[in-house]
Amino acid sequence: MDKEPIFLMDSHAHLSSEGFKIDGEKAVENAMALGNFKIINVCTEVKELEAGLLLEKKYPSVVKNVAATTPHDAHLETEEIFNYFQKMAIEKKIVGIGETGFDDFIEPNNVAFQKTVCRRYIDLGVHTLLPLIFHVRGDQAFKNLYEALGEFPPILGMIHCFTGNDQQAKKALDLGLYLSISGIVTFKKSSALREVVKKIPLDRLLIETDSPWLSPEGYRGKPNEPAHIVSIAQTLATIYGVSVATIFEKTYENGSILFV
Q: Looking at residue 71, which CATH number applies to its domain?
C-alpha cells in the first residue's frame, strides 16, 4: 500500500537574498526530496524579486514569491521601488505583501519611515486582497503594528518569526492573524517562547525557517535552508503533543489559506 503523500510549507524564506549561502536551486531540490514542498520566498529588494520570479518559473509548484520593503530599509523606500512591488501585486505576480512592519532595534529615526511604509503596504494588501507578512520585533513595534492595523479593514496576514509574549499573541489572534514560528523555538534559551507557543491554536500556526538565518538546533553555525524545517516541526510536535505529520499537515493547510 502506498504511503500518504507528505505536504510541507516553509512560510518564510529568503531564497533569492544575497545573504543566502547555498545555491537557491539546490535548496529547493533539497526541500522537494522531503515531499510536496511549498516555499514562500520573501523578497525585500527589486533584484531579489526578479531572481525569485526566475526561481518560481523553474519550480512553479514549489516557489511562490512575496515582496515589500522591510522595516530595516524603510528609509530607503522610493517611488520606483514601491511602484514595482505594487505592479507585481496588482498583476498577481506575487502571492503576498511582505515583509513589512516594525522593529525597535533599528535607528530610532527610522520609526517614522516604518510607520509610513507599513501603512502603505497594508493599504496595498487591502486593495489587492493579498495577505500581509509582518516583521515585528520589540514591544513598541507590536503597539505600532496594532495601531496601524486599526486604521484599516480586517486583513489576512501573518506575523513571521513570532517571538512575542502571551498578550501580543492574543491580540494578533484577535485580529485574525496567523503566527509563524521559526527555528528560535528550538533554542535552549527559548523556554518562554515555547510556553507562549503552547497557547497558539493549531489552526492559526505556521512554520518557517527564515533561511538563510536562524538555523535551528543541530544546524547552528551553518546556513539555514527550507529542508531544516523538519527540526522545527519536531520541536513543535513535542510542544503540542502531536505527531510531526500533524504539524506538517496543519501548517500546510493554514499556509494554503493565506497563500492561495
A: 3.20.20.140
